[in-house]
Amino acid sequence: MTKPPVLTDATLDVNDGVALLTFNRDDVRNALTGTALVGEIIKVIDWVNSNHSVGAMIITGGGKAFSSGGNVKHMLNKVGLFSGTPLEIQDKYRRGLQKMARAMQQLEVPVIAAVNGAAIGAGLDLACMCDIRLGSQFAKVGETFVNLGIIPGDGGAWFLPRVVGLQRAAEMTFSGRIVGAEEALKIGLLMEVLPSSDLLPRAKEMAAGFAAKPREALRISKRLLQMGQRLELPDFLDYCAAQQSLCHTSDQHREALEHALK
To answer: Could you report the per-residue pLDDT of 60-111, keeping only the tens digit for each?
Structure first.
């Protein structure tokens, strides 16, 4: 395993094949703009993808929030991402938040969002980019862009309907309202709601269970889930057959069979 990347606004802990990324900017409620968090998410994903000793990942927020998304004060004052001409702002989105969205979509291992508190705007969208979302009783989420006269420029209108369905995503997007933990559970945005003290242990338990599976089959299975959303069935089945041929001839398959027959 190569050394993990050095981070400034987050911490990365790796134990038993599980990478835990914790945002550490509670002073700005773990905002994704005006901090190093977007770049550090991308760095960690690149590192995880290149280290097959990592079998699963958890993303959570340190402090009270998961992530507040964009920094509203910076929007008002036209700072950073929100400054410049329309073409300059467009390019900053493409090379910032949208680069993060592409990286999350290319993450090769299962990723769990442990939503400890507010996940608002781009913070909610980041959670929707994860495979599984667990929440504490303090979790609250909102696709709130319309309240500020903007749109989900990070790709949220692509991710959210895939989590809650088009009708519910439309209602959340058009209203910009905040959804509490229990409602988020009811509509399928959160898979489980737990006491805050149990959130991270549960996420670690689940991630460890994933990481204990044969790593190559695990990574291929994640690719299949993603590709199945965009390929026609005949093309998808051809891809499955090709990937299955690799699995059947792998050492991990043989070892798993031997273990199953003991």
So the answer is: 999 999 999 999 999 999 999 999 999 999 999 999 999 999 999 999 999 9
- Rounded CA-CA distance 215/52 in Å is 7
**Spatial separation of the C-alpha atoms in residues 25 and 91, rounded to whole Å:** 25
**Domain of residue 244, residue span:** 215-260
Amino acid at 29: R
Are residues 125 and 94 part of one domain?
yes
Q: Are 53 and 17 in contact (CB under 8 A)?
A: yes
Q: What is the pTM of this model?
A: 0.96
Does residue 46 belong to any structural domain of this protein?
Answer: yes
Distances (CA, A) of 10 to 22, 117, 231: 5, 16, 36
Among 90, 102, 126, 110, smallest CA distance to 209 is for 110
On the question of pLDDT at 57 being above 90, the answer is yes
167-176 own/partner pairs: CB under 8 Å, 24+ apart: 169/143, 172/142, 172/143, 173/143, 173/145, 173/146, 174/146, 175/146, 176/142, 176/143, 176/144, 176/145, 176/146, 176/147
Query: Taking a C-beta distance cutoff of 8 angstroms, is the pair 122, 101 a contact?
Result: no
Give residues with Cβ within 8 angstroms of 219, minimum separation 6: 52, 108, 109
Q: 92 with 140, same domain?
A: yes
Same domain for 222 and 200? no
SS3 category, 202: helix
d(CA 216, CA 158): 28
List the CATH number of the domain containing 183: 3.90.226.10
Task: Calculate the CA 69 to chain-centre distance.
Answer: 13
- Name the phi and psi angles at 151, rounded to 5: -120, 165
Q: Is residue 29 in a domain?
A: yes
